[in-house]
Amino acid sequence: MVSISMFIRLVALFAGVATLAAGLNASAQKADETAQDEIIMSAWSNPTDCNQAVARPVSFSVLAADAEGLIGECVKVEGYWSGRALFGSSSDARFRLSNTTDRLRGERIGIYAQWDSIGEPPDRPKRTLFVGRVGQCETQWPGAIMVMGYCHYTGGSILLVAEAFPR
Predict the structure, then answer these.
(1) Residue 157 sits in which domain range?
(2) Does residue 45 contact residue 75 with C-beta atoms inside 8 Å?
(3) What is the four-CA torsion angle of 118, 121, 127, 129, rounded to 10 degrees?
(4) N or C: which terminus of the chain has fewer CB atoms within 10 Å of its end residue's CB?
(5) In DSSP terms, which residues pair with 77 in a beta bridge?
């Protein structure tokens, strides 16, 4: 007879094996591809077709509050970069657990980028202009079995970054 604690351990072990097996098919997801049974590790926009010259300026507050009418559009938005998110103020960016707290939902924009191209997030919040395509955690990758990064922990507006310009 299997005890409850042994059963829980077996379930956890099988879940871990399944996650590892699925990870073998993981890939970077670009903005215009559709994910089907994949683990999304990263995503970004192509700067050849979404760049500062063609991007439409959008206010931070509009994009953070509701991205629905902007999904897929190439935009430029300025804010304070901290971790994997953009904030409207440096105080919000410095708030404890700012990237995931429910208190700031609707007041931050998640960032997905090709980090080798734009660099890692700064140690302290830094005013930065981002150019990229608008998305939303809840609808960006409907066929994905797991999404890493910002959307793994929270939801809302995201920007698939093509370019970043520190201010």
Answers:
(1) 4-166
(2) no
(3) 30
(4) N
(5) 130
Q: Is 144 within 8 Å of 39 (Cβ atoms)?
A: yes
How far apart (Å, rounded) are the C-alpha atoms in residues 69 and 72? 9
Report how far residue 137's alpha carbon sits from residue 128's, in angstroms, rounded to the nearest whole number: 22
> Which two structure tokens, joined as six digits, stand for 97?
């657990």
CA distance 161 to 167: 16
State the Cα angle at 77 between 105 and 84, rounded to 5°. 50
Helix/strand/coil for 35 = coil
- Dist. CA 133–CA 124, nearest whole Å: 25
Is this structure's pTM higher than 0.85?
no
Round to whole Å and give the CA distance between 42 and 116.
12
| CA-based torsion, 142, 144, 146, 149: positive or negative | negative
Give residue-wise pLDDT tens across range 39-93: 999 999 999 999 999 999 999 999 999 899 999 999 999 999 999 999 999 999 9
| Cβ-based neighbour number of residue 9 at 10 Å | 12
CATH of the domain at 33: 2.40.50.140
How open is the CA angle 161-76-107, to the nearest 5 degrees? 85
